Amino acid sequence: MPKAKGKSRRQKYSYNLNRKRLYRSARRRAAPRIACSHIRHAWDPTKSVAQNLAEMGLAEDPNKAVPIPKKKLRGMEVESGGREQGKKIVRKPYVVNEMEYEASLPEKKSNTLSRDLIDYVRYMIQNHGENYKEMARDEKNYYQDTPKQIKRKINVYKNFYPEEYKDFIASLKQEKMDVQ
User: Fold this and answer.
1) Residue 77 lies in a domain
2) Residue 149 class from Cβ within 10 Å (0-12 exposed, 13-18 middle, 19+ buried)?
3) Each residue of 75-132: pLDDT tens digit?
4) How many domains is the chain built from?
5) H-type helices in 72-146, by residue range?
6) Which of 6, 37, 45 is nearest to 101 (CA)?
7) Integer distance in angstroms from the first to the last C-alpha of the chain?
8) Which range marks the domain in which residue 125 is found?
9) Which pLDDT score is estimated for 97?
10) Residue 160 falls within a domain, yes or no?
11) Position 72 in a domain
């Protein structure tokens, strides 16, 4: 398709346009993206960010919320500003309480090993026991792992699934006793 006429021409800069006002009004209209659901539900779009956070008992600027004390200069005390900020009224304390409760919950363990790695480790232990040099020469060692690498993989499996590893070793011992 041919180009539209006039698109290749340089745009003229409009000197009479007040861009500050345009930017401010666009900023007011756009609601902030909030990741925390507790804050999102308590957010009032008619109020400013500072007002919303103050009502929830949260700090807008951490540097102002917890000021760094000034150091003493060679035996002389430096006075702070002498101003004490008035305590702000927290109208929505449940937001902070919910966030603290959520933070106090224990973290879920999301570390898992792939099924292929588990099968690989089980195969090696089943066929070679603790002989890592034999494991390195095994035909199923597709990635040509060294004995130390194989040992490390087995240790990772032991750390991730200790009960499963113990049951597996116990079943191997049971099989050996049945064979004898």
Assistant:
1) no
2) middle
3) 555 454 444 455 678 889 999 999 999 889 988 777 789 999 999 999 999 999 999 9
4) 2
5) 93-104, 115-128, 132-137
6) 37
7) 83
8) 115-179
9) 92
10) yes
11) no
